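To whoever is on call:

I kicked off a structure prediction for a single chain this morning and the downstream step that reads the tokens threw a length-mismatch warning. I double-checked the sequence; it's 301 residues and nothing unusual in it as far as I can see. Pasting both halves so you can look.
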Amino acid sequence: MMNLLQQIHTTFLPKAILGLIPLLLIFTGCAGPQAANSELTTATEAYNEAQRDPSIAQFAPVALKEAEEALERTQSLWEAKADKSSVDHYAYIALQKTRIALETAAFNAANQEISRSEVERQQVLLDVRRSEADRSEARAQSALEEARGERALADEARRRADLLAARVNELEARPTDRGLVLTLGDVLFETGQSDLRSAGMKTMDDLAKFLQEYPERNILVEGFTDNVGSESFNMELSRKRANSVKAAILNRNIAENRIRTVGYGFQYPVGSNDTAAGRQQNRRVEIIISEQDGTITTRGQ
């Protein structure tokens, strides 16, 4: 450098000017560091604080990058000793971009929270609908099971009804408004006696089997005679014949409380007592089989 100055001194400059050059070099070297720019400092501090917040990088990465680029441009202008107004202008822009990044992050975070809440709400609604669907399915399944149960009961009722019809047919009983009526004719008893003949035992076996199969049903045994003989004799005979039937049923393991007896003598004839055929019809024992409730209406009621 000194060689160059000497050359200039020798060739071009007057001595007075050449004497000032060393002083200028001294002052230039002692000027010190460049003064800080307050606007740049404010923008830098704002950016650094935003950069430390992880939510900014998460929810506003593009805006934060734009703020960074604006700050770098301002820093470059300051380092190049650009006009202060220019540095202040770009520092202001960098600060505003940092603030935009902050606002953008807050907005996006709020939207995410709203979206999460909406997802949770939709999940709750979905759970409610699924729960309601499950309850509806359970109700439908219950109704189906109930229908199956009712159908099974109906099938069982039909089966028992068919079986009952078959058993009634075997007993040769006839339906009446008092229940099923089974009639034992006079031929099943000894003449003028109350003892059952062996031919009547088959009927007793069938009746006892029926009562065992249908334990809810009871019987009423009614004895009748023709009008030959005294009223007291016929009344007693009708009672004895009814009790004879009861004894035969009891011997076949049917509970006594399921059997009632009554004798009517020559009351309630079904044929004419003026003919032999009619009197034979009147000499009978009728066995009334109750309905399922076990009750039997007594004659005259």
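Update from on-call: the warning came from a stale cache, not from the record. Cleared it. Sanity check on the structure: The chain has two domains: 37-146, 174-289.
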